[in-house]
Fold this protein.
Amino acid sequence: MHLTHLLGHDGLATLLTLVAPGGRTGNREDGIESLEEWGELVRRLQIPYYEEAHQYWSDAETDGYFAGPNTPALYSQTMLRDILTQYGHGVDSLEDGAEDDHADDGDSEA
């Protein structure tokens, strides 16, 4: 299966079947072995800006950037954009591509 089949709403549904097969009976041999690895894969494929910001994660950790927010906030669009702005080259060059890939992700900013 190509990674593009794991993007968007249908891709998320496919990823979820690897963890919770639903009505299927039997074992999960064709599923995942590590929830940690599965979670990382889902974040990389489904959360806008995560893949780009993740390359700066260790720099941000070293600087104490994550001292305070709870775990879900680590993956918020605000946090990821802030990391890219502070440690990377900003998000301006990424705006068009990310919005096309995740046009209907339900994430809106006020």
User: Anything to note?
Assistant: The helical segments are 8-19, 35-46, 50-54, 57-62, 71-74, 77-87, 95-101. Confidence is low (pLDDT under 50) at residues 98-110.
